[in-house]
Each structure stands twice: as structure tokens, then as C-alpha cells.
Give the backbone structure.
Amino acid sequence: KAGVTQTPRYLIKTRGQQVTLSCSPISGHRSVSWYQQTPGQGLQFLFEYFSETQRNKGNFPGRFSGRQFSNSRSEMNVSTLELGDSALYLCASTFGVASYEQYFGPGTRLTVT
Amino acid sequence: QKEVEQNSGPLSVPEGAIASLNCTYSDRGSQSFFWYRQYSGKSPELIMFIYSNGDKEDGRFTAQLNKASQYVSLLIRDSQPSDSATYLCAVSRAGGYNKLIFGAGTRLAVHP
């Protein structure tokens, strides 16, 4: 069974631009969660989608948004990029409705200059 | 107080020894507990999960959960240099759906 895939793997953007990251979950998994990982803050939850509905959102500004499609693929968007948005963005896929095991994709490394 | 606390390490153990990694959490409503291993430059890899009080063993790994003490640990027996990585403890709460709250991670170094 294929794992979680994320595209692109690496991105370099300039301040003020926007970016869209994509995640395809494991086949059959309906929940997709997004996390941001930085050396200073560690792994922080951004949001979770289940059956195209956002069920949970972390403490991030409104510049961070996401969506999920009917095939469970998910995208997250960051508008008006800031230097502090440089991070590893991780997508995790889960089969169950709640508190089940999550499997991470390889991540997208975003650098904002 | 952070919701999930781990000693940042590094925890240094000799090859073949038992490595013991600890994690405490503050929310008594926490219901599922996960250990992830993350190699430098890679994404986290799930190695253990535990939902009930007690021990759960999988190969060289044992997870231990004590909800009364709000404590979860990971034991790695016969530690190998390839086990050198950062180990992340993660917790999900009742009503939190699939939101995971992570500790800062413990860096483990296994030396030959």
C-alpha cells in the first residue's frame, strides 16, 4: 500500500507570496491533518480534515487555510508569506474518526526569503 | 506548563543497553498515546501506540502507560546505533478528533 505523498518536496518563496501544498493520504484513509515543524516550536497542529470538513484548527493566523477534496486529497495554502513561515510542513493520514494512528508523509520544506 | 513534556536529551546509551524515554502529559482527558521516531531531515515515523494502562510490546520496543500518573514511556531493548534519532511523544485528547499534541522530543544517541 502506498504511503502518504506530499508535493512539492521543496519550495523557495519570497515574502508576500502565497503557496499551496498538496497531500495525498494512504488509500482508504479519510482524515488528513497538517502540522508545521520548526526548530524553535517543534511540531504544531495546523488543522484536520475528515470527509471534506475541517474538524479542528490549531492556533495559526488566518493566512493558513486548507481544504479536502472528495477523494480525500488535501491542500493547504499560506498567503502573504512571512519569514517565520519557513518550516517543514507535514501531512498525516489517519483511517479512523478520532485518536487513531497517524502516518506522516515526507513533508514539504518551505523556505521564505 | 507544556501539555506534553519530554527531556530533550541527548540520552546517550551504549550499544546493547536498554534506552528509556519518558513523557508526561497534563490533560487528564488524553486518551491515545503515540511514539514517533524522527531521523534528522526526515519525517516522523510511528513506532508505537498505546491506549490502555499497562505495557505494550512490539519487538524491541515496549510502551508503558500510567494514566493515574499521566506518564507514558518507551523502552528500547538491545539498542542499536541505528536507533539514534529524536523520539517524539504525542497525545490525543477525547473530543480532539485526530489532533495530536507533540512533545519537543528526546534525542537518543546509541554509541558502539
Remarks:
- Chain B touches chain A through 25 residues (CB under 8 Å).
